[in-house]
Amino acid sequence: MSPETYVLLRHAHRTFATLSILGFVARWLGVMAMQHWTQGRIAKSLPHVVDTLLLLSALAMAWGAGFTPENAPWMTAKIVLLLVYIGLGVVALRPTQPPRRRMVAGIAGILVFAHIVAIAFTKQPLGLFARWS
Ligand code: HEM
C-alpha cells in the first residue's frame, strides 16, 4: 500500500471515529430525554454504517502496514474494546432499558471510547495507564 493511501485511510478512520462518538453522545442524550427522533430509521441505521466504515478503514490500514495481533497487541485491544463500546451502546441507546442502566452504560461507553483513542496514540493496550505499569 502506498504511503499516500495509508495517510488517506488514517484520515478517514479518524473522521469515522469522530462521527461515531458524536452520534453516540447525541443519541444517548436524546434517548435519555425521550426524544422521538432517536427511534427514527436514520438515527438507528446510520451508526451501523459509520461503525462498519470505522472498522473497514482500520482493517485496511492493518493489512497495509502488516500489523498483526502478534506484532501489534494494541490493535487486538482496540478490536476487543470496539466490541465492548458497541455492546454498551446497545444498552445505553435502548429506551426499554431502565434509565439508570442507560446512564451508566452511556458514561462507560464514552470512557471506553476515550481509552480506545488513547491506545491509538500511545500504541499501548493500557493507553495512558501504561506509564504506571
Ligand atoms: C472506536 C474505535 C476506534 C477509535 C476511536 C479509533 C481511533 C483512532 C485514531 C484517533 C487513530 C489515529 C492515531 C494517530 O493519528 O496517530 C487511529 C489509528 C489507527 N487505528 Fe483506530 N480506532 C478505533 C478502532 C480501531 C480498530 C478496531 C482497529 C483495528 C482493527 C484500529 C486500527 C488502527 C490503526 C492500524 C491505526 C493507524 C496507526 C498508525 O498508523 O499510527 N482502530 N485509530
Report strand %: under 5%
> Whole-Å distance between the termini?
35 Å
Number of strands: 0
Characterize the main sheet. Answer: none
Helical content stands at: over 70%
Structure description:
The chain has about 130 residues and is mostly helical. The chain has one domain (about 5-130). Helix content is about 75%, strand content about 0%. The protein is built from 4 helices and no strands. It starts with a helix and ends in an 11-residue tail after the last helix. Bound molecules: protoporphyrin IX containing FE. The site of protoporphyrin IX containing FE has 22 residues, from α1, α2, α3 and α4.
Short overview:
Helices cover 74% and strands 0% of the residues.
Topology:
Blueprint lengths: L2 H30 L8 H25 L7 H20 L6 H24 L11
Helix pairs in contact: 1-2, 1-4, 3-4
The structure holds protoporphyrin IX containing FE.
Kindly list the characteristics that best describe this protein.
mainly alpha, 74% helix, globular, binds protoporphyrin IX containing FE, 133 residues
